[in-house]
Amino acid sequence: MANKKKVIVTGFEPFGEHAVNSSWVAVQELERLGLGEAVDLHVCEVPVAYQAVQRLLPSLWKEHQPKLVVHVGVSGLATTVTLEQCGHNKGYKRPDNCSFCPASQCCMENGPDCIRSVLDMDTVRKRVIDSGLGFPVSVSKDAGRYLCDYTYYTSLQLGQGHSAFIHVPPLGKPYSSRDLGRALQAVVQEMLKLMEVDHEHSEYCNHTHQHQHDH
Fold first, then answer.
1. Is the confidence at residue 34, as pLDDT, over 60?
2. Rounded to an integer, what distance in angstroms lies between the CA atom of residue 167 and that of residue 116?
3. pTM, rounded to two decimals
4. Catalytic site residues?
């Protein structure tokens, strides 16, 4: 099938107190479950390192030309699967796994402070809950100003908003790897459905939106 949708989903390597990173475990579980016949799913593990992210992400976007890139990260503070709406440019003071920190403390010199995903995460959340996933999903607008946020901002900028970020709790707090894999599957499938709808709408009503203020 030449017309398969290419989707990239990434998790992170271990760092700090996370000797096992539940995000990568969950992504590997998602890879086993798959996203259905129409989706070509590519997964990869991202280093917890600012410079590595700056090298890896442009090649992922360029090489695969994905319809959507979803990054998954662990948050010790999270108790639910959390959908992040936006990435932030500034405030990166915490050293990475290589003890490195950007001198400018930002992702992109002169970039916008915040870039939003084209996906409305409140809508995604509602659809996932309506689909009967069976456990809670929440939405956040602060991805934490570490590698998660940094990766998300970089990806949103490269993909012109066609990216998403999902925070997951550590394993067993309270969800198993299987639970987290199922949650990722449900969330990413709803994201793709929503993109299809938005794409159809934008095909024929772009011109009407621009002139609404003229009347």
1. yes
2. 16
3. 0.92
4. 84, 148, 167
